[in-house]
Amino acid sequence: MQQFLILFAIGKLNGERSLSGVLHLLNGKKTSQTLTDGTLFHASFLFSALPALDRATLETEVKQLQANGWVRSLSAETYCMTSLGTQALQTWQKKHPYLLTINSLKYRKAETLFFNVVSLYVQSLAHVLHNDTRFLPICNDFHVQRIVKRCMPKRSERQASADQHYQEWLTLLNQLDEKSATLFVLRMSHRTRTGLTIEQLADQIALSKEEVSLRFRAVLHHFLQEALQQPTLYPMLHTLAAASIGVESVPLTQSATKTYELLQQGMTPQEILRRRNIKRSTLEDHLVEAAIHVPTFSIDAFVSKDEQQAIQTAFTTLKTKKLKTLKEALQDVSYFKIRLVLGKKGSE
């Protein structure tokens, strides 16, 4: 599994980023550059796919990929996928279609909270329906318990709420393949059974721990996406999802979030530089993050329409995302402006 995920990342980055870029994408290093690459190369499903991956392991796996004839070296630090690698990846991908459901740039930090909220809500509702209010909660986190308490229906509405939840879960589970649906059901706790851990599921279903983790993440991201985008179809789950993460949640780094909040308050870039005492390059990183992840963020104040058109034309003509190549073609246009336009284009 690990080898194919690395091959997938190399194929997506296509020699335009170094092995460090591959490593940071797969182990989920939350930097401005990695978040940008995840969107720009349409590889958000690979972000944090291998959180324990280190440099030595990556280099060992890449050597094996070379020995297989699946990748070739472009330089000491860059690789691209060969036609043999493409064929091998396509064959493997047919067995793992759920991967493309994952959107870790958008939901990675929300998935655990959402699952804890859903788990505790289902457990609590099952117990109170049987007039059992003295049970050991599956999650002791105060924030989770507060969300669940706020969302619990009145006594007279509990059965109707349970029936509605059942229909929503059934609809969503029927959209999954059998392995993923089974995995999710076994992961959940109810009144008479505690849900299984990832390790226990791997043993019971006879899958690798990595595959179980990724399948489970794909299920959670699918549920979040459906619940948040279709509130009329999934009213109960929409309430839990929105209460867990907020409909406007965006995957900015913590520092970029502070900068974006100041922009929203009407401060200019110069004022933000003075207020936060950060470098201009750091501020530019934050603005690129906002361009990628905040749909309503406009880059018009930073890049003229003519410059945007010139950058898009160069990108289309040269068929590359390498900043140096684009900068050489665009002469007087700054790297910052190129990154803003590419970021906005990649998020569309």
The percentage of residues in β strands lies in under 5%
- What is the number of helices? 18
Shape category: globular
The number of distinct β-strands equals 2
**Radius of gyration, in angstroms, nearest whole number:** 23 Å
> What does the average pLDDT come to?
89
Q: How many structural domains in the coordinates?
A: 3
Order of helices and strands: HHHHEEHHHHHHHHHHHHHH
Strand order of the largest sheet: 1-2
Q: What is the straight-line distance between the termini?
A: 30 Å
Main β-sheet description: 2 strands, antiparallel
Helix amount: 55-70%
Spans of at least 5 consecutive residues with low confidence: none
Q: In terms of structural class, how would the helical and strand content be classed?
A: mainly alpha
Description:
- This protein is mainly α and 348 residues long.
- 65% of the residues lie in helices and 2% in strands.
- The protein is built from 18 helices and 2 strands.
- It has a two-stranded antiparallel ribbon with strand order 1-2.
- The chain is globular and about 70 Å long.
- This is Helicase Helix-turn-helix domain-containing protein.
